[in-house]
Amino acid sequence: MKISRRLISLAAVASLAAVPPLVLNYGASASSTPDATAAASSFTAAQVLAGVKKNMTTPKKVNSKPHINTMTRTKNVNVFQVASGVFAYTSSMAIDTDGSDRDPDPDHQNQTTFQDSNGRALGAHHVPFYVLGDDCFDRKSPCPHFFYKEHNIKGRQFALMFFKGKCIGSIFGDTQTGNDQTTSDNDSRELGEASVKAAQLLGIPSSGTTGGVDNGVTVVIFSGSSWVVNGTNSNLNTNAQALVTKALNSLGTKMGL
Questions:
Q1: Complete edge-to-edge strand list for the sheet that includes strand 75-77
Q2: H-assigned helices in 83-222
Q3: How many CA atoms lie within 13 A of 98 on its CB side?
Q4: Which of 99, 120, 215, 256 has the least C-beta neighbours within 10 A?
Q5: In contact, 10 and 215? CB cutoff 8 Å
Q6: Where are the alpha helices (DSSP H) in 43-195?
Q7: Residue 46, SS3 per DSSP
Q8: What are the C-alpha distances in Å from 25 to residues 64, 165, 171, 204, 244?
Q9: Of all helices (H) and strands (E), which one includes residue 238?
Q10: Cα dist. 110→3, 188, 234, 253 in Å?
Q11: Per-residue pLDDT for 12 more than 90?
């Protein structure tokens, strides 16, 4: 279980170079194919992200109370059901260093809420994973905040992550809950944290103490048992990236792009 969160300054990353607007399909094949039918049925990451943003509207909002942006502490993050069984939010990315990989972050914990298929804590340096709230802060049902257990979401649930021209696959690996650490002000209503590996793949500074970004990361979660990713710390990244094309095409079709 995630029990710590270091709040950090992002002044060092404010000068990141602008990225061309073309969204790259990291996990999907970028090469041309002789199968014209297959090519015609494919959706690019840019098309899908545009469709997701178009569907992030008030009538499709899942939470009735806003979530806390992990990096800025501003209550301005909302979750939307952009298609049947698919949920999306845009937030910060704070860096989660927890799990079986060693890390110099003083807030590092050697456990993650969910484990790989061999029962080992996930490694933040090897596995791209995202973080959700551990419980319903409000102790109500349905929860006024987005609570994953109410939406058929389990450990290692697949998600697409988008940031400034890149698209990757990731899994649900850790949870956020409150504690009294002097370096943090944790709260299960927070959204906007992901692993070192996820940050690296998206081109975001990945240090647990000086990395991260304040906003602009869009996470799109695919609920249901068929989207739970199996594997070990050595191949979960590969297995997640292998689902990117399938996810883009599935969501593109569902949204009628």
A1: 75-77, 67-69, 190-191
A2: 196-202
A3: 27
A4: 256
A5: no
A6: 45-54
A7: helix
A8: 33, 9, 17, 17, 8
A9: helix 236-241
A10: 11, 20, 17, 40
A11: no
